[in-house]
Amino acid sequence: MLSSIAELKRVVFDEETIAERVRELGQEITAAYPDGELLVLGLLKGSFIFLSDLVRKIDRPLQVDFLVASSYGEGTVSSGNVRLVYDPETELAGKHILLVEDIIDTGRTLNKLVALLGQRRARSLEICALLHKHAAEHLELEAKFLGFDAPTLFLVGYGLDHAENFRHLPYIASLT
Ligand code: PRP
Asked: Quick one: which of 25, 63, 64, 121 has the most CB atoms within 10 Å?
């Protein structure tokens, strides 16, 4: 079982590089929302470190809440489905919603969440992703704010896991 830091192959994005890009994203997001209420919604668990750093670089009033999603019905229902294990208690209607994701891979998670959140009468809905593999065939909503294009490697650290390990690393590394 892979759980030792010594087994990581190489650092892909180091701590300083991530911090600088997160600072820039905070500035972009601050400028993009001149008015209205902003609710930053982090998709757990992967986004927890990114979201924590990001909101501290956004220089305008905002609220924070989280989503926990769980897929079910896969293999038996052709479309699949997503269920919110934790549905934000914060009111979404009338607010700018910024959905924060650690990585977009196939895009399936986001496509389902975008459809679901689209029914909540928000003022706007946008995505901020730290990493994007550009592997998705179709995205309902492209990320308006993006940290980095990600290589086609299995990445861990800064919230991303392998069998729940490595989330705490302050950098992003590849396993292979
Ligand atoms: C990972 C990641 C994204 C999603 C991306 O979540 O955090 O949410 O997969 O993949 P996709 O674009 O192919 O849908 P995971 O289900 O591993 O849960 P976690 O956030 O708790 O690690």
From this structure: 25
